[in-house]
Amino acid sequence: MNRVIWITGAGSGIGKALALKYNSKQNVIILSGRKEEQLNAVAKTLKNSYVLPLDVTNESAIIEAVKQVEAKFDKIDMLINNAGVSQRSKASEVSNDVGRKLMEVNFFGSVHLTKAALPLLLKSEKASIVAMSSAAGKFGFPLRSYYSASKHALHGFYEALSFELKDTNIHVLMVCPGRIKTEISFNALTASGEAHNKMDQGQLNGIPVEKCARQIVNAISKEKAEVYIGGKEVIMIYLKRYIPSLFRYIVKKVNPK
Ligand SMILES: NC(=O)c1ccc[n+]([C@@H]2O[C@H](COP(=O)([O-])OP(=O)(O)OC[C@H]3O[C@@H](n4cnc5c(N)ncnc54)[C@H](OP(=O)(O)O)[C@@H]3O)[C@@H](O)[C@H]2O)c1
After folding, report:
1. Which domain holds residue 113?
2. Can you give the pTM of this predicted structure?
3. Does the pLDDT of residue 100 top 90, yes or no?
4. Residues 6 or more apart in contact with residue 135 via CB below 8 angstroms
5. Average pLDDT value for residue range 150-161
6. Separation of 215 CA from ligand 1 center, angstroms?
7. Tell me, what CATH number does 191's domain have?
8. Ligand 1 centre from 216 Cα, in Å?
């Protein structure tokens, strides 16, 4: 029987790289995101896929999408909640609406889809839920106030969920990438909600997206609870935990773009 792997944000970046990593006849890959054309382009490169356009901020669309998956495949073996939007704006300048939007996509989008998909994940012999957090889900970073808050919130929700699922077939993984070379900074929201539309230097220096996808696949297969992926910026997660004063000293000196 095919493994059913559902990836959100599958039309670009890390989601697309994960779809390519799982590309095989035995895996049917459900590709979700808002831009259907991008999803179709990814589908063309895959052996076995199903394009399911979805805006994760639309709760009724989530319910309908899960119904479609149930009718077509009857179960889900892996749900990769990868859809996300970053931020490039000061907390003092960003509008409340933009802040709420960041929470809606990054936190509620992931959580609502996971909750709706749970009955189908429980039908799998061995299932994984992946929540795409960030290094910014482990510490606050300038110009990322809501983004960082939304990713921190994922940790609380999914840790609680993982304990609630301890006697089931479902494994939960938190992924915390540092800087990965994708278009995330292009799509990041400014204070007024426009796209930032720039490749930031930090992003440009990020590790290749294929390397990131490889490490995520490895963490899923080893049923890890949490994985940190990136270059030297990942050290900041440990500094924040063990030497917080040094962590604060360094972040004050870093260019946040
Ligand atoms: N790149 C990094 O350095 C980095 C670091 C830490 C964490 N991450 C996380 O990794 C994930 C993927 O980001 P990326 O780097 O691959 O950037 P990306 O290429 O911009 O990918 C983001 C994806 O999310 C989808 N998306 C955005 N809003 C959506 C919505 N409302 N409903 C459904 N899909 C939506 C986008 O597709 P549509 O526009 O078609 O909807 C897009 O495919 C994000 O959660 C991000 O926070 C990335």
Report:
1. 3-253
2. 0.98
3. yes
4. 141, 176, 177, 178, 228, 230, 233, 234, 236, 237
5. 98
6. 17
7. 3.40.50.720
8. 15
